[in-house]
Each structure stands twice: as C-alpha cells, then as structure tokens.
Amino acid sequence: MDTSVSAYNENTHVESDQALPITISGLTKRYGSLYALNSVDLEIRSGEFLTLLGPSGSGKTTLLMAIAGFNRPDSGSIRFGDSEMILMPPHQRNVGMVFQSYALFPHMSVAQNIAFPLKLRGVKAAERLSRVNEALETVQLSGLGDRTIDQLSGGQRQRVALARAFVFRPRILLMDEPLSALDKKLRERMQIELKQLHRQLGVTTVYVTHDQREALTMSDRIAVINDGLLMQVDTPEIIYNQPVNAFVADFIGESAMLPLTHTTNGILEFGGQEIVQTPVSGTDRTWSMVIRPERLEIADKQAVPNESLIVFDGVVRESVFQGESAFVLLELSDGTELSLRAGGGTDSRAQRLQPGEQIKISMQRHDVIVIPAGQE
Amino acid sequence: MSWWQSPASDTQVTHGGRLWLYILAIIIMLLLVIPTFIVIPMSFSDSQYLEFPPSTWSMRWYHEYFGSNKWMRATWTSLRIGVLTMLVATPVGTMAAYALYVSGHRAARLIFMYMLTPMIVPVILIAIGVFYFYGRVKLNNSIAGLVLAHTALAIPLVMIIITAALRSYDLNQERVARSLGATRLKAFFVITLPQIKFSVITAALLSFLTSFDEVIVSIFVSGGKTATLTKHMFSALRDYIDPTIAAISTIMVLISTVLLLLVQLAGSRDK
Ligand SMILES: Nc1ncnc2c1ncn2[C@@H]1O[C@H](COP(=O)(O)OP(=O)(O)OP(=O)(O)O)[C@@H](O)[C@H]1O
Ligand SMILES: [Mg+2]
Predict the structure, then answer these.
(1) Is some CB atom of chain A closer than 8 A to the CB atom of B102?
(2) How far is the CA of A127 from the centre of ligand 2 (A)?
(3) Ligand 1 pocket, residue A210 CB under 6 Å
(4) Which residue among A210, A234, A250 closes a domain?
(5) Cβ contacts of A120 on chain B, cutoff 8 Å
C-alpha cells in the first residue's frame, strides 16, 4: 500500500487498513432437512486469497452469504479477527461484495455507484471524488465515471462492481462467481487482473467459483466443498497433487481411479504389481490410486517395473490429436479405462498410435496418489 | 402486390387473411367506447331529459353541476376519499408486496392470494359485510370507514403492480447496498424505490381511481354528509333523471382518461 492510503485513514475512522482473518467454526445451515452447510470449520488467513470451490448446490453461496450476513446460520460462529459477527447486520460488517450479476445501480452513474459506500460513510465530496478517480484508475476505467451503467460492456461492469467493493477499503472482500458471465478470453484476463488487484490491496478475499481451473490459477488456498461439507483446504499444488479423497481427486483436474488390493506384507498392489506401502492409518479399509493423464507416459515395449517406475499393459482405444498435446484413451487388462496426455512435440509416439494396439505405459512411483476408496 | 396480399407477420399470413380479425377487433373496441360516446353528447343537450342525439346544445347541465352545493360537496367528498385511499393503499400495498416477495416464506404465496380476495369476491358481498361490521363499530357514514373499505379494494391492485415491478428487479442490488454500509431501510429507499417508482406512481393513480369510481360499497356505507359523488349519482338516477348525470359522467371520464394516460406514461418508464 502506498503512503496516500494511510493519509486517508486519519480522517476516516470506520475503516481499517488491516486485512482481517476470518475464523469459521461449527457453521451449520439447514433448509428443511437439507444441510446447505454442515458443521463447517474454516480459518481464512489475514490477507489471503481463498477460493471456495465446489459443484452446483454444494453450499458455496450459502457460506459466502453467511460471512456477509445475509443468511443466519442455525449454529456455529463466524469471527472477523476477534469479533463475533454472527449477530452483526450486514451493513456493519464492512465487507466488500461482488455478485455474479454485478448488481450495479442502474439509476446512478459509474462514479455515483463507486461513491455510494463513501457517501454512506460520510466521506467529504472532494475526497470522495479523488478516491473514486483513484479506484477507477485501479480498475483501468479512468474517464468513464460519467457513463451510465448501460453504456458499459460486460467486462467494464465487472470492473465497476469491483471498484465499488474495494473503494471504501473493506477489511474483507467477498466475490460470488464474479467472472462467470464473461467470455473465456476476458475471463482469463480478469483472473490475472483480480489476482494483481488482490496483491495490491492485500485484503482478505473469499472467492467463489465452480471452475477448478480458475481456482487453481488464482488462489493462495482452495477450500473444496461438497454437499455442505468441507472436503479439503490447502494450496492449489497440494489440492492437485495430494487430494485427500476421491471427490477432491475427481473434481480437481482429470483423473482415473484404480482400486488397490491389500497384500499380506502391508503393501497395496494393482494387477499383481506392488504400488505402495499401505498407509499406517488404514490396513482395515480399501484404497484407490489416482492417476492424472499428464503423469502417464508411453513406455518402451521392454519396460519393467522397478523402484522408481510403475508399468501397466494396455490397449489403445482412441488417440486424439489436440494441438499442443495428444490424448490417448486406453483400456487396462482388467477393463479399467485410463487416459494419457502426452506433449505433442516431445512425445510424437502418442500421435502414431492406432486403436487396438498393445502398448506399455509407465508413471513415476513418486507421482502415485493414494486415497481412501469411495467418497467420504 | 396489394395491401391485403402482403404479409402481416413473419409467418406469411396476409393482411387479407387477417381481415376478419381486424374487423372483430374494431367491433370490440367500438363496443367498449360506445356508451362513453353516447353519454358525452347527451351532457351537452339543452333538454330537460336525457336525449340522444340532443336536439339543441348547451352547457346548461355543467352550470347546474358546478352551481349545485350538493354536487360540489359530494365531489369534494369523493376527491378526499380517493386521495386518502391512495395515501393509505399505496404504502401499505407496497410494503405487503415487498415483504411477501422478499421473505421467500412457504406461506408467502398463500398470504398473497389471501390479500387478493377483495378483488375476487363479488363487491356486493364485501359491501354487505362491511355495512354490518361498520354498524357494530360505528364507522358507517364516516370518511374513515369509506377510506378503509376502498383501501381494501385497492390493495390487491397495488400488490399486483408492485410485485410485477419487483420481479424484474435484481434484489442483489439491495444486498450489495447493505454490504456497502446501508441499513435495510436506506437500501430500500435509495436503491430499490427509485427503480420501481413509476410502478408505485401507477399503483397510486389506480388506487385513487378505484376509490373515485367505486359505487357499490359507497351506496352501502356512505350517506348524508359523507355521501360520495357516485352515491349521489346513483340516487339521482333513481329519483329524477336529468342530464346533470351525463355532465358529471363526462367529467369523470375525463379524469379517468387523464389518469390512465399518466399511468401509461409512468408504466413504460421503469426500464
Ligand atoms: N433459500 C433457500 N431455500 C431452500 N434451499 C436453499 C436456499 N438457498 C439455497 N438452498 C439450497 O442449499 C444448497 C446450497 O445452495 P448454494 O446456493 O449455497 O449452492 P452453490 O454452491 O452456491 O451452488 P451454485 O454453484 O449453483 O451457485 C442447495 O441445495 C440449494 O438448493
Ligand atoms: Mg452460488
């Protein structure tokens, strides 16, 4: 943050420059017999960009609305820093919000929209003007303050909604699928801009999306949610490389699940091939192996398993050229389907495969992901 | 290609093929306005009796109307009741419509239907009920009683109009406003109301008309000093028919037409 920011803070007492951590514990919200949120515990660190990721109807919006104060959970606690928020009305929470529909005020100009929260806080006209202009500059809309909302493109509306949400320097920024109405190109650009803006503002940000790629691109951490239950909360790398269960593995990235069997000597195997040591926690449950298409390679005909390599035999079902890569659909001897993605330039073998061809495929032993079988 | 062979729509139906529809539409429109067009000329007649078409013309019955204490008092009563009904029904109906729309409660639809009953039940039934009830609570022949009864009749209209307006409005705007620091009340007045204001104006004008035109309830519960214009007209028709009635009707048509035009203008303004 630059120095002008702290200068503002001397005459505006409501605001604080500090991002706040959010501590959610035991949060439950029911609609009839349906648990929209089921005893959710979540620590959102001060200043981090956390994404709530989950399929439609998983409870993402419900959680976000609970943080903003628009729905009242049945039980649990939401704290911003040290203060309990559960009974605090939305207008006192000092939270910036961006909706999917943007919800700009059509009867006000762009500048009036952005000035709205400042006006409510009694910021003087001259300062209001300079802060609105500053915000417009931040979202690269300088000079468009006098436009009406219907004179803006989708991307510009998105930016106005954003500017309006951070212009009053909230301690927390909430966004519910803010990019889903934009086309792919613009969406990808806005993802990067949002990320930069977050770095610039340093505000604790909770972002909702059902697009796993978007979540992987933007987040410091991702909270995967399904049926009102938190599945896993971690960095994108760990979520991708070490999913804790089948749901997370399946929802993030492409994957195939291979069922593993126990051997007597504490090892899990697949098709007679030893895969890994059985995790200490689970000799009495069943395990699966998660296979990512890009971790598989086409191996030599003579390849054999060793301490660093796992090798499968398979039959090619389909081989598809996709520009930057080739995608191969395989069937293992036990009938399991696997897919393999090979970089088109480096591994041209993948492009020459014919359906019906017998091949060997391999993967690094350290890429093995083992998860409890079935969803938990 | 002549006009009746040219296509009237994208589906290639010709104007000729639609001719019967045009004729039907014209007949219906004529039927709707013919009574009005008969009454208006009658009001300018010089005759003692209702006569169509008038044999001689004059403004005599308008002088009669504007010169009569009785008629002026009744008009004043009707205007007052109309305005008061508007002032009560518009905010109450708007609040009810807003509450039911926003609550999302399971019973909201049911309550909405319940609130519409004054529009569905025969007015004569309401009139009789109100008359006996007012007898008990001593509200017959009072302005307050008439305003309350007319408000009950106007509220369904207000609720339908306001609910329709809210349907085409993104309630997230109010949520955003609240997250930005506005209280719920402020969010409603600063963000929602300006965007549905023309519907509110429409609802207000129609509430006024509902009361101003209302006959049946007025016949039952108004009388003496609080007799409304419509009640006087009705008695006049029964006791002695003269063209004053036609003159008053013409004036009422004029007022209604102007208000409906305003409603049209207002209605098309909310986005
Ligand atoms: N007001 C409500 N009344 C009843 N059920 C509701 C209500 N709001 C949400 N639900 C239910 O709660 C569950 C979670 O809804 P929520 O809106 O949080 O999902 P979401 O993760 O945001 O989904 P999407 O990606 O589709 O926006 C859903 O099953 C939904 O049907
Ligand atoms: Mg949602």
Answers:
(1) no
(2) 36
(3) yes
(4) A250
(5) 180-182, 186
The whole-angstrom separation of Cα A317 and Cα A345 is 22
- pTM higher than 0.90, yes or no? no
Name every chain A residue with its beta carbon within 8 A of the beta carbon of B176: 97, 99, 103, 164
Range of the domain at A311: 254-372
How far apart CA B125 and CA B118 sit, in angstroms, is 10
Domain count, chain A: 2
A341-366 residue pLDDT tens: 887 555 566 667 788 888 888 888 88
Question: What residues are neighbours of ligand 2 (ion), with CB under 5 Å?
Answer: A 61
Taking the C-alpha atoms of residue A102 and residue A182, their distance in angstroms, rounded to an integer, is: 11
Query: Length of chain B in residues, anyone?
Result: 271
Ligand number with the minimum distance to the CA of A99: 2
- pLDDT at B188 (0 to 100): 96
Judge if A190 and A337 occupy the same domain.
no
CA A197 – CA A195 distance, rounded (Å) = 5
Ligand closest in space to the Cα of A56? 1
Which residues does chain B have within 8 Å of residue A69's beta carbon, measured at their own beta carbons? Answer: 178-179
**Cβ distance A270 to A368 under 8 Å?**
no
Q: What torsion, rounded to 10 degrees, do the Cα atoms A187, A193, A197, A198 define?
A: 60
The candidate with the shortest Cα–Cα distance to B47, out of B244, B233, B250, B237, is B244
Tokens 């008061």 locate to B84
Of all protein residues, the one whose alpha carbon is nearest to atom 25 of ligand 1 is A56
Specify the CATH number for B69-270; select among 2.60.40.150, 1.10.10.10, 1.10.3720.10, 3.30.310.50. 1.10.3720.10
Give CA–CA dist B17/B172, Å, rounded: 48
Distances (CA, A) of A4 to A10, A120, A123, B127: 11, 21, 16, 70
Decide if B160 contacts B117 (C-beta within 8 A).
no
> Tens of pLDDT along B133-183?
999 998 888 899 999 999 999 999 999 999 999 999 999 999 999 999 999
Residue type, A289: M
Q: Which of residues 161-190 of B touch A (CB under 8 A)?
A: 170, 172-173, 175-184, 186-187
Across chain B, mean pLDDT equals 90
- What 3-state DSSP class applies to B144? helix
Distance of CA A121 to the CA centre of its chain: 33
The answer to whether the CB of A337 falls within 8 A of the CB of A375 is no
Question: Which chain A residue shows the shortest CA-CA distance from B178?
Answer: A91
Domain assignments of chain B as residue spans, ordered by start: 15-61, 69-270
Measured between beta carbons, which residues in chain A are less than 8 angstroms from residue B175? 68, 70, 90, 97, 99, 103
Q: Is A178 on the interface with B (CB under 8 A)?
A: no
